[in-house]
Task: inverse folding
């Protein structure tokens, strides 16, 4: 019997060993294995004029960093993607499979070999191109001090066009892509009888300036409930430009007089003084969108209360929730979870009237640097009578490396322009949903 057990044990061991050693015997090369992964998962950001700190285009770019690449892919720091793919899937997701991660490890271990480029022809790498049917606006240049700290600003970008029009998409084009980390901006539409001079005001304020609130007033932001404000009209993250939905969906009107408020624009730390001159590109449509996108927001400044009210106590890990009832059938296109530096995890889901759950997004490890807008692969129907729930956990202990205060202090909400700020002394809990009134067949409409 003992001998039999021994055999079974040995046999089992051999099977497990062989599964895990599948690749160990094979030579992993750049040409055959690595280049295809890098081309589809990395160079979107790691190319000139994009946010990645260096290029990952040539064999040499990769070979000299094989150790670092093996590390950042193993710990899933790169490619940056926070949402758990086992919970929900998105059109714009960028995730490596376990097998691809393993290939990076082995490639490094085996000496980062080039391989046979005649047998495995390297595909030409397509860098980002521009087409030219847009209106381009210069954004006020921003001076960034070389003081190794993050910087946050509000910037106003006014515009005047000869006649009312339609926007299909707005792109933020960073002047210094290695420095700009993220941007979120509203578009404010002014009525035809507006006589204010939108050009002759302050254009830029530093969120951490002691005069912040006074300077906001000098910017001449209206901030009244009657103004026509298009939320999140422009968003940017390294590697992420505008979202273009299928023809006829999305877009919004553009009045003759209007302005963007970038609230906020986040610059990463710099070791030298620099000036960033970024741009906005507005892609106009020829006719009004058949199905303009609607937006709703849970939490801070939104349609639903946060329970308990958002005050994260010093030294505590706390959970906050918020929920909203959905009175009509809707089709969700894109969602955006939003917290600041104390965020730890974020989960959102809908519960249908029959009790079934529709998972929306789960971010097990929040990172405020990657404020993605998550677009579903296909429109997601949420039936009338459902409730959307959000559960957010905040970590205000010293264990949180992003905690802005040592020792920790109580941190809560504060209502500033548009209800948001990236002040380190403020927290937020928001869940923004872009949706359409449901139409039959929406659940089969691809957003890829
Ligand atoms: C969405 C844009 C984006 C994608 C996609 C991306 N990177 Fe990055 N990468 C960045 C940025 C930005 C940084 C700078 C660090 C930061 O901002 O967090 C970075 C940093 C790095 C670093 C340096 C890390 C360090 O600690 O200094 C490595 C190595 C790297 N990326 C490798 C990769 C690899 C390999 C891939 C593909 C598997 C990839 N990246 C995909 C944007 C991206």
Result:
């Amino acid at each position: 019997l003992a001998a039999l057990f021994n055999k079974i044990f040995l046999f089992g061991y051999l099977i497990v060993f062989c599964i895990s050693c599948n690749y160990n015997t094979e030579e992993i090369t750049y040409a055959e294995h690595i280049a295809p992964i890098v081309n589809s998962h990395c160079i979107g950001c790691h190319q000139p004029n994009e946010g990645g700190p260096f290029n990952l285009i040539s064999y040499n770019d990769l070979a000299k960093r094989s150790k670092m690449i093996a590390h950042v892919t193993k710990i899933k720091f790169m490619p940056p993607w926070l949402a758990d793919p086992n919970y929900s899937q998105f059109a714009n997701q960028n995730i490596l499979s376990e097998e691809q991660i393993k290939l990076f490890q082995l490639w490094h271990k085996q000496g980062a070999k080039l391989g046979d480029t005649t047998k495995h022809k390297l595909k030409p790498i397509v860098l980002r191109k521009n087409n030219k049917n847009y209106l381009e606006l210069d954004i006020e240049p921003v001076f960034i001090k070389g003081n190794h700290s993050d910087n946050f600003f509000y910037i106003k970008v006014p515009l005047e066009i000869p006649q009312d029009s339609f926007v299909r998409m707005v792109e933020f084009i960073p002047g210094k892509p290695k420095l700009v980390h993220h941007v979120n901006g509203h578009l404010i539409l002014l009525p035809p009888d507006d006589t204010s001079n939108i050009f002759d005001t302050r254009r830029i304020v530093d969120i951490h300036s002691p005069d912040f609130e006074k300077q906001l007033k000098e910017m001449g932001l209206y901030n009244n409930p009657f103004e026509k404000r298009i939320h999140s009209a422009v968003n940017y993250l390294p590697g992420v430009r505008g979202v273009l939905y299928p023809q006829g969906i999305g877009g919004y009107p553009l009045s003759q007089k209007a302005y963007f408020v970038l609230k906020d624009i986040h610059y990463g730390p710099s070791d030298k003084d620099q000036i960033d001159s970024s741009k906005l590109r507005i892609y106009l449509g020829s006719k009004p969108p058949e199905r303009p996108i609607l937006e709703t927001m849970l939490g801070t400044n939104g349609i639903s209360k946060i329970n308990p009210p958002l005050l994260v106590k010093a030294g505590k890990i706390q959970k906050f929730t918020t929920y909203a009832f959905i009175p009509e059938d809707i089709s969700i296109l894109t969602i955006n979870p939003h917290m600041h530096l104390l965020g730890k995890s974020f989960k959102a889901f809908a519960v249908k009237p029959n009790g079934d759950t529709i998972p929306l997004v789960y971010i097990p490890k929040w990172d405020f640097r990657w404020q993605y807008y998550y677009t579903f692969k296909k429109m997601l129907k949420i039936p009338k009578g459902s409730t959307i729930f959000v559960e957010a956990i905040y970590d205000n202990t010293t264990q949180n490396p992003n905690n802005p205060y040592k020792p920790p202090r109580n941190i809560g909400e504060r209502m500033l322009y548009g209800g948001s700020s990236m002040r380190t002394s403020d927290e937020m809990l928001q869940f923004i949903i872009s949706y359409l009134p449901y139409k039959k067949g929406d659940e089969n409409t691809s957003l890829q």
Summary: The mean pLDDT is 88. The CA atoms of residues 74 and 101 lie 6 Å apart.
